[in-house]
Amino acid sequence: MAGALRMTEAQFIGGYEHDLQQFMPYDYIPVDIKTEPFMPETAHGPYIQIIEEPKQRGFRFRYECEGPSHGGLPGASSEKNKRTYPTVRINNYVGLARVEVQLVTHTDPPRVHAHSLVGRHCVENGTCTIDIGPNDLTASFSNLGILHVTKKGVVEVLTRRLREEKKRLKGPHCHLTDVEESAIVKEAKELGKTMDLNIVRLKFTAYLQDSTGAFTRALKPVVSNPIYDSKSPNASNLKISRMDKTCGSVLGGDEIFLLCDKVQKDDIEIRFYEEDEDGCWEAFGDFSPTDVHKQYAIVFKTPAYHSTEIERPVTVFLQLRRKKAGDSSDPKQFTYIPQVLDKEEVLRKKQKPLPHYEHWRGGRGGGGAGGFGGSGGGGFQFHQEMNGAGGGAGTGGFFNVSFSGFGNGGGAQMSGSAPQSGAAQQQQQTDRQTGGQSDSPLRQQLLQIAAALNSRVSQSARQTATALLQYCSTGDARVLLAIQRHLCGIQDGNGDTPLHLAIIHHQTGVIQQLIHTLLSSQQQGIINTANHLQQTPLHLAVITRQVKVVEVLLKAGADPSLVDKDGRTPLHLAALAGDHNILRFLLAHLGECHAHLVNMPDFHGLHPLHLAVRRDGERCLRLLVEGGAKINEPEQKSGNTALHLAVRENLFKVACLLITELRADVNACTFGGNTPLHLAASLSSPTFCSMLIAAGADKSIENDEPLFFSSSSSDDEDEPIREEEKEREVAPKTSNPRKRPAGGHTPLDLAKCQKVRKVLSPSKSPKSDRRGSGNIRPTTSSTEEVERAGLDEDTLSRLVNVLSVGDVPWKKLAEKLGMMTLTHLYQDSPTPCRQLLRHYKLGGGAVEGLVEALQSLGLTEGVRLLRNAELRDDKHNTDVTVDSGFGSQPMEDVEPPAGVQ
């Protein structure tokens, strides 16, 4: 039926019976169902069919003040030179008939819609009717327009229509009771909450004549495809225009920038899926509404693949999909690559390769070579190729160094010169026979060079032998390294020097010997040599977590400012690993010349402080701030501070530490103007929202994302602003230097969770005053509220002194306050009791609760201190309020304001 949605009788009746049970306590039939029973559908009986669907996108719903549409609703196949319109046909019937069309919702089953159809054949109740037949039973609706009802008027329109239908069913002169009126209003409100004003469908119902000529015999209706308002974000087709990555780790977590056509930030998801013979797998990209930039770009993190043990790349698909409508974009390929366990290649280099053995070659030794333990037989012949390194030889050649006397009772004796080959001896004998007649200046020069080289080789061999004897006597390998000092900077195929390899294999003794040799031979530059991954020995010492080696390298002059392939210094790597021992040592040895490293970004724009947050390293955060790290410094990609990252990663303990102990700014803004409260609201976290508000977060700050966008097309520039947008402008706003003319989003605008909306709503909360005071006043700064509640800094410090004098274990106090789950937060703090009370204050804890805890511990002095603080505050202000943090949980019982509904 040309893609039409036909409803079976069971679906139609069953759906409405369900709705009647849910929303209608009184006995009546909804407005979108006729009182006449539908004719049973038979194999050859009459039925209605959609032969031309309406055009789904590109048609604009218009408000009453804007006048009629420029042309009617076109058909799906309509073209510039060939206009078509929504058309239906009655099959298997001859005679007169009446076709009625009305607007319904896109839900299943469809419900009556608040919008109305307007046009040539339309009436005031929003329906259109055409009489057809007896020969041509095709009905084409060529002049349909859709009248958009404002959000403010939805309930009123639905109430009026339901009331009219009720009266029509009961009779023209009936009177509705108060119970019926309240039931109608209730149903209209429930229906208005779930209704999408940007999507409608057409429902066509055909009526055949009965024996009296009246059109009472109704055929089963058919419903068209959804029609989207062209001004709605959901009106455009979903399309992925560009991605900066098409592959990522099988573990997920890779950040991808995706450009797309216009989307609605709270109604879009990124679906990863794979379909094979084993079934279908799907997962969704991780992002919040604040990660959708002006409805045209999304920054998200990839989900993990269902199997992390893949051995080769796996290709899946990703697509944009609307949460409500369910429509999706064309899929794009994405490749998951196997997990890389050894990014720094340390484990690979630790693996010892199998040695390659040459085939044994028997027989006697080469010419002239003295034997080991015997006279000349079976000896080894050593060939050393001189390539100019260390010895100063400028030319290459092979020299036979002969050792003799081993096993014959003497020491190691080395000949003064290298033995000559048989060809050379024969040549010398010939020269003697000819009396040197063939001598030439060139030949004499070559012989002199050969003699000098032989002398140097002989000297090197004697030094090596002496060093070997000394090593055998003392066990000190430094004497051998001193002989080979010119080879200490040699690099292997990975660019690693001997010092790199010693660190990789945790050879601490060898490391110290190598460094001693390098320093004694004035080769300090080798200590800062980088391999092919731009890793210096100090980088590897931090990666392998060798604190002793880090200390030795720094004392030997290792440069802590050198960066690896990711732009990270050893300080970055220590923060990323969460190794507070190495981090403490690095910070202590930075000095003034390297003090800037603590606030230096890597190639990804992250400071050591940001890396420590991602690692959940609370000790590292303390050390970095003590070492000079700026707590509110933003990372360079999107302007997130450490507190933003803690909220985004759902690290509640870290966020508490940043706010209470490290004094992070709770109102710091990203490049897009989002505060941590914006992120917490968009992530639907009432806990974070309460904590941030209690710490002084401003609920009225607007980000840089306008609430609405002006159209770029010339046709839409003169169109009036939607009514709901006008309503937003009427609401008074506090002065904000970041505010744009159009107005940005506040945290409340980004909140979709009802609990979060209640926390963020500017509602009044009465104080639980022990004297029963009924005074209520609007809340102001949350920090001021907490301080006025009797737990200001002075009172807190005095209370800590009282607890220290009373020698009260802070864990017992935490148990009395119900904060045992957070005790691990305070164990590393130098003043755990102070941090405990600060967190209790930050969470909006009531003073009465603290008083009860102190009374149970027998601390009457602390109770007296808090009572005196309350009396002092009451003299200045008798109508204080409870802060809107954890202490305002009774808001759950308060009806949210109309703007929140």
Automatic annotation (TrEMBL):
Residue segments, region Disordered: 353-379, 410-440, 704-790, 877-901
Biological processes, Gene Ontology terms: angiogenesis; cholesterol homeostasis; nervous system development; signal transduction
Limits of the RHD domain: 43-234
Biased composition (Gly residues): 363-379
Species of the source: Maylandia zebra (zebra mbuna)
Highest taxon above the source species: Eukaryota
Protein name: Nuclear factor of kappa light polypeptide gene enhancer in B-cells 2 (p49/p100)
PANTHER family in the cross-refs: NUCLEAR FACTOR NF-KAPPA-B P100 SUBUNIT, NUCLEAR FACTOR NF-KAPPA-B PROTEIN
Record-linked InterPro entries: Ankyrin_rpt (IPR002110), Ankyrin_rpt-contain_sf (IPR036770), DEATH-like_dom_sf (IPR011029), Death_dom (IPR000488), Ig-like_fold (IPR013783), Ig_E-set (IPR014756), IPT_dom (IPR002909), IPT_NFkappaB (IPR033926)
Subcellular locations according to the entry: Cytoplasm; Nucleus
Cited Pfam families: Ank_2, Death, RHD_dimer, RHD_DNA_bind
GO molecular function terms noted in the UniProt entry: DNA-binding transcription factor activity, RNA polymerase II-specific; RNA polymerase II cis-regulatory region sequence-specific DNA binding
ANK repeat placement: 494-515, 533-565, 566-587, 604-636, 672-704
Keyword Protein transport listed: no
Compositional bias (Low complexity): 414-440
GO cellular component, one term: cytoplasm
Keywords attached to this entry: Activator, ANK repeat, Cytoplasm, DNA-binding, Nucleus, Repeat, Transcription, Transcription regulation
